[in-house]
Write a structure and sequence with these properties.
297 residues, 18 strands, alpha+beta, seven-stranded mixed beta sheet, six-stranded antiparallel beta sheet
């Protein structure tokens, strides 16, 4: 059985390259980017394992996904997005998903998670990463048909105009953008020529949380590194809910307070940076507003 496992966790995942628009022309596969956690799911001889994009084991947070994949053949490795749907809100509920990460497991009565699958890295005895996406996609659809209902294929199209329509029509339901891939491309993490393109409709950007200002349990602000390399302190002061969640995430991981002349603030550095979403108002001195944690990244 172990011979079937040609791709083992932890595994490096392809990270999309940000673009301003959805590419036109033939040869493209466009799929929706949902408001969830990027994960890889692997079926092994000992059971099903789930990892985050940052290679953390998050299997305990997603028991329903492990159960849905239990009947698949050992050696299967799926790349996808774990999401939670809220009937009450009529959209994907990122906060419900995030609560699993902070608690380490879903709470009793919590809405179930679904794995929206968009790539197949391996099948039994076969590493599919060198194969073109067209081959991987066809085999992924066959695999999903054999899985439980908690594993679904992503909504996709070859029509760029249809993809653009989805960004307008489905944004209220939690669609963050469109990921575009060449049908003939292999799965090559770190290769910019083979990289996926992500057109984001959300008004947030990913930043690295470097530390916090204020008390550990309820910080006042976050110190972040923006994608362009600049550092900033978020403003205005965090509301009580955001402060409590951020405090819980950084508890026990902060160093001694430092005086930062460049930022003109005293703050406590985080031992290991995590990803957060922030709203940025452009300018030489950007105004950065804290949105939320994305520690699964």
């Amino acid at each position: 059985m172990s011979g079937a496992l040609v791709v083992r966790l932890p595994v490096e995942l392809v990270r999309p390259r940000a673009v301003e628009s959805i590419p036109d022309g033939p040869g493209w596969h466009h799929s929706v980017k949902l408001d969830g956690w990027r994960v890889a799911l692997a079926v092994t001889g000992e059971g099903v394992r789930v990892q985050s994009r940052s290679k953390r084991d998050v299997t305990p947070q997603f028991p329903e996904l492990a159960a849905a994949a239990a009947g698949l053949e050992a050696g299967t490795v799926i790349d996808g997005e774990a999401v939670v749907w809220s009937e009450e809100q009529g959209r994907f509920d990122f906060e419900a998903l995030q609560s699993r990460g902070l608690a380490g497991r879903p709470r009793r009565g919590a809405p179930g998670a679904v794995l929206v699958a968009f790539d197949l890295l391996a099948a039994p005895y076969t590493d599919l990463r060198p194969s073109p996406l067209r081959t991987r996609w066809a085999r992924l659809r066959d695999v999903v048909e054999q899985a439980g209902p908690e594993i679904q294929t992503v909504l996709s199209t070859e029509d760029a105009e249809q993809a653009r329509a989805w960004t307008r029509e489905l944004r209220p339901r939690g669609v963050e953008g469109i990921v575009s891939k060449r049908w003939d491309s292999a799965y090559r993490p770190g290769d910019r020529r083979a990289a996926w393109r992500k057109m984001r409709v959300s008004d947030t950007v990913d930043a690295q949380l470097l530390g916090v200002v204020g008390p550990e349990r309820r910080p006042w602000s976050a110190v972040v590194a923006l994608p362009d390399g600049r550092r900033a302190v978020t403003t205005p002061r965090l509301d009580s809910v955001a402060a409590a969640r951020l405090g819980q995430a950084v508890a026990g991981q902060l160093g001694e307070e430092v005086r930062d002349a460049e930022l003109d603030v005293r703050w406590r550095p985080l031992a290991e940076t995590v990803t957060v979403e922030v709203h940025v108002r452009p300018g030489r001195n950007p105004l950065v507003r804290y949105a939320r944690l994305r520690p699964e990244m």
